[in-house]
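hey m, so remember when u said the tokens were messed up on ur end? i reran from scratch. heres the input so u can diff it against urs
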Amino acid sequence: MMRRLFSTYYWGTLLFLLTIFNITCYGQKSIILDTDFGGDADDLGALAMLNHFQNRNEIKLLAVMCWNTEKYAVSAIDAVNTYYGNPDVPIGTRSAEAQITEWNHTRILADNLPHDASRKSVPETTGLYRQILNDAKDQSITIITIGPLLNIKSLLLSKPDDISPLSGPELIESKVKEFVIMGGEFPNSDRREWNFDGNMKGITQFVLANLKVPITFLGYEVGVDIKTGEVFNELDVNAPLYLGYFHFSKYCPWLNSNFKGRIYNNSTYDQTAVLYAVRGGIGDYWHRIENGVCLPDPEGRTSWEASDSSLHSYLVLDWSRTEMAQEIEKFMLGNF
């Protein structure tokens, strides 16, 4: 009996000390994720990472803002959060007519995993953003965007209301410590990168011209050759990473069409933004390029122009792609 009590005390103390260690080393960060969840599977991997970080008390996931208007996207996000033990994370969705995109991996998650949220049951992103920012401490929130930036534009255009006497820009400048934006390609690119384009001409230009807080960019070039996903073939078939990546591998229009019944490796863009936002890693994973400003064109092409007064910077990967793939898979699986 005494041995059992000692063992329980020992493991409980160890768990407490590990929790304190995590918070002390990394600081519990307040995070909002803005995602186009449902298309590329990297959004799913990024959300899995954030759930693991939340469960280790490294972050407080304040909300997930959904850019995608696909019918099952909100339900899929809630299903993933519920699977990892975080069913109460608020979700917002943008106002637009819902549509069904069969190759998206949203319905497979919603149909196979418990959840209770839907597009009709959650608030619109702008109001939810304003409420969370209003309630937060000054310069306390990190916003991670891993999709097109329409939700951020809508927040910037918002006016004082019953939630806050501050405008959208005033709320952001007061409450947001940093934006971490996965998008563009650095230093310069003629490529119409999806998160900077999104078939929404001029939105990225507007957002970057009006955000007056620090922005760190993780560009297309960082994640394109970091290949992850095949390891999920070993997971339970009802795990969200298996369900989502399997469906993506089978139906995604731009992957290998010769599907052989297994999950394929995929580029790893969004997970890099989450890793930086939570763990940092400057001087380890990557180094920072500063003294410049990102100038997107209306269709998502990027250029980097020298500037001594800019709040913009972008990251350059220092680890090998193979090493970073293994590191990110560790965080997606929660093996850390």
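this time it looks ok to me. The radius of gyration is 20 Å. if urs says something different then somethings off w ur setup not the seq
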